[in-house]
């Protein structure tokens, strides 16, 4: 009904009001309550952090008050609103169903979207990568066993073109979760660290970043503990990186203290939740008794490969569940299976730490067998197949004119993306690589891993190029860590780079 009223002209509203007097009273009541809350909220204090060259401001209780937690962080004239909402009922999932969405509206930059609809559509690559940075910064501090569906939404309110919103969004998310009633063991704080000349710079501007040989986002929590690192460097000496990280973690402590102060002043009491009940001791003992010999025989058998080992562990698990279920018919299979999975991890870990041995027979310093082949398909500009153990990656390279460069939308350019990018690395991890079925297409994970590899290779490419280079990296088999390789691709390299 309020949406209908909002679309009426004033004259139409008057006629509607006389026909529906009860609606007019209801509307007047809502306006009165809303204005009262706003007047109270406007008196809430801001919390400022002096970062030396700039000031980071936090506020809460003025916007999005129906959310479990909401906060605005501002650096310069760049402001981000973050809301946090978590369902009261837990899910049946064994992990935290957390979703982080960062959106940058064109209005925040004083622009109109350039697509034919002139409105924001799906998330851009810049938005997805920023969402992943925020996710990795806050996810580790949720308590174990918390399985309530949780959503953190980041809305760019304004951007000044100088201060990138990535770091601001992490700090705003930390503040929103801290003042909420959602169980969370924060706060965390984030800074961007650069090196210009010989000087370490905290939160450099976009113009300063162009001169920086280091660009790292560092998220830390209390007691100088690091939660998340992401960045790139142009062959910076290790001791300079250590110096930059030391100053970065020191800067986060000031922000952590201020968010703690914000929580104590405006935060809600944390809700009480029921973590999953631990399995009874007698079930754990029964699982370990039935499973020990089976698991050790499987993990000590060097002849197994990934597929046969997984199949053997699955078959052993079915036998263990059947035996324990027969002994304790009232126990749920899901609890027995969870105990079995935990015991497999325990034996596997003991094999490595106590005996310095891996399940395929290798020692801790032994590499898997590596093989490479190049120039696989003549029509391609370049191709290579990299095999390490049972992990296999096919790479191709294509060259084109500068007209084929990737062009970012205007808002992404203002928030830190390159206007045009003539080196592209696209990473794919199809489900068949692990003998599974699933949806095709590129997900957030693939975008993130591709961006990671792209940053690692960018520094060793020629600084100037008259063409666009697109590298594809498709995982065909996966057993353990993913690999990216850039070999024999007709490009002059300064250094050979591997990722594993």
Automatic annotation (TrEMBL):
GO terms for molecular function: 3'-5'-RNA exonuclease activity; polyribonucleotide nucleotidyltransferase activity; RNA binding. Residues 57-183, 186-250, 367-481 form the Exoribonuclease phosphorolytic domain. It is an enzyme of class 2 (transferase). Keywords: Nucleotidyltransferase, RNA-binding, Transferase. Pfam families: PNPase, RNase_PH, RNase_PH_C. Residues 284-362 form the Polyribonucleotide nucleotidyltransferase RNA-binding domain. GO terms for cellular component: cytosol; mitochondrion. Its EC number is 2.7.7.8. GO terms for biological process: mitochondrial mRNA catabolic process; mitochondrial RNA 3'-end processing. Belongs to the polyribonucleotide nucleotidyltransferase family. This is polyribonucleotide nucleotidyltransferase. It comes from Elysia marginata. The lineage of its organism: Eukaryota, Metazoa, Spiralia, Lophotrochozoa, Mollusca.
């Amino acid at each position: 009904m309020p949406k209908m009223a909002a679309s009426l002209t004033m004259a139409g509203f008057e006629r509607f009001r006389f026909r529906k007097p009860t609606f007019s009273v209801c509307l007047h009541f809502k306006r009165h309550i809303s204005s009262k809350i706003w007047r109270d909220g406007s008196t809430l204090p801001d919390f400022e952090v002096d970062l030396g060259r700039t000031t980071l401001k936090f506020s809460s209780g003025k916007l999005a008050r129906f959310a479990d937690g909401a906060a605005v962080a501002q650096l310069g004239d760049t402001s981000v609103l973050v809301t946090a909402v978590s369902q009261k009922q837990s899910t049946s999932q064994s992990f935290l169903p957390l979703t982080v969405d960062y959106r940058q509206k064109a209005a925040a930059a004083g622009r109109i979207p350039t697509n034919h609809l002139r409105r924001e559509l799906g998330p851009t690559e810049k938005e997805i990568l920023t969402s992943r940075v925020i996710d990795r910064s806050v996810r580790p501090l949720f308590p174990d066993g918390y399985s309530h569906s949780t959503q953190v939404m980041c809305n760019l309110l304004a951007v000044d073109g100088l201060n990138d919103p990535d770091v601001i969004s992490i700090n705003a998310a930390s503040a929103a979760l801290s003042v909420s009633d959602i169980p969370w063991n924060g706060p965390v704080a984030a800074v961007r660290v650069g090196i210009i000349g010989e000087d370490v710079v905290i939160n450099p501007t976009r113009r300063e970043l162009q001169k920086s040989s280091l660009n790292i986002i560092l998220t830390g929590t209390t007691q100088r503990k690091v939660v998340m690192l992401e960045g790139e460097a142009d062959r910076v000496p290790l001791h300079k990186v250590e110096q930059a990280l030391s100053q970065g973690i020191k800067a986060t402590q000031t922000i952590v203290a201020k968010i703690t102060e914000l929580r104590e002043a405006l935060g809600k009491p944390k809700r009480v939740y029921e973590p999953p009940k631990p399995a009874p001791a007698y079930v754990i003992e029964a699982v370990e008794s039935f499973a020990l010999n089976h698991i050790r025989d499987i993990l000590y058998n060097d002849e197994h490969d990934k597929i046969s080992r997984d199949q053997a562990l699955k078959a052993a698990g079915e036998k263990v569940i059947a035996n324990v279920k027969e002994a304790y018919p009232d126990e749920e299979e899901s609890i027995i299976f969870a105990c079995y999975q935990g015991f497999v991890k325990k034996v596997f870990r003991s094999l490595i730490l106590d005996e310095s041995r891996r399940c395929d027979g290798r020692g801790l310093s032994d590499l898997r067998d590596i093989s490479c082949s190049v120039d696989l398909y003549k029509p391609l500009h370049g191709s290579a197949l990299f095999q390490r153990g049972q992990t296999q990656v096919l790479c191709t390279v294509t060259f084109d004119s500068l007209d084929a460069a990737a062009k970012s939308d205007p808002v992404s350019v203002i928030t830190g993306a390159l206007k045009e990018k003539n080196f592209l690395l696209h990473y794919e991890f199809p489900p068949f690589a692990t003998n599974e079925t699933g949806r095709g297409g590129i997900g957030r994970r693939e975008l993130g891993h591709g961006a990671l590899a792209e940053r690692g290779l960018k520094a060793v490419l020629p600084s100037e190029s008259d063409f666009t280079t697109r590298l594809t990296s498709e995982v065909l088999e996966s057993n353990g860590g993913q690999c990216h390789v850039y070999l024999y691709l007709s490009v002059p390299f300064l250094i050979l780079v591997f990722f594993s």
